[in-house]
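Hey, I'm writing a tutorial for new members on how sequence and structure tokens pair up, and I'd like a real worked example in the thread rather than a made-up one. If someone can provide the structure for the chain below, I'll link this post from the tutorial.
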Amino acid sequence: MTPHSLAFYMDVIASGTVLGAKPTDTPDQVTAILGSDFAENSLDDQSMWRDYGMVEFFWGRDSRHHAWTGHHFTLQVHRLSLGGSTVNRVIRERYGRFDRHLRFDKLERLLTRRGLHMEDVPDPNAPAYKLHWQPASQVSVMVCGFPEREARRRGSARIGDVYAVSSSMSAEQVAWHRSRYGGHDA
């Protein structure tokens, strides 16, 4: 893992933004930051997401007559294991090369040195996945707890690999996870 790509993940987790793009920003605001190279997806008139490679931003609205409201973003880190040009050009120009796997233990050590502590959150996908949360930025990190099937194949996640990074996960959502799936406040 290059130090620059680790800096990208640490910046996202510390700030709760992608290069300053907030989960609540409009589609135009996100595009002004990440560029116009995206795939736009929608299941209906009330939801949309834009896929910027590894980064996806999500919006919703009450009807087609209302403006889009930002909901969250997700870094689909697991896509890096497939290779290719998964990282958005703007991010790559700023942070350089990205490795195919991001190890959570290494990321967590660097975050701790920076004064950012991750809390464990019970998750319905456990033990296949483990969920961690940074309270100040409300960013969650999903980590593989089991190797994916055929883990020796290209594109498979390994135990301890970061699968995804998302924002925002509120304290209320964390409390709900804890009451629903077990665990206690950290």
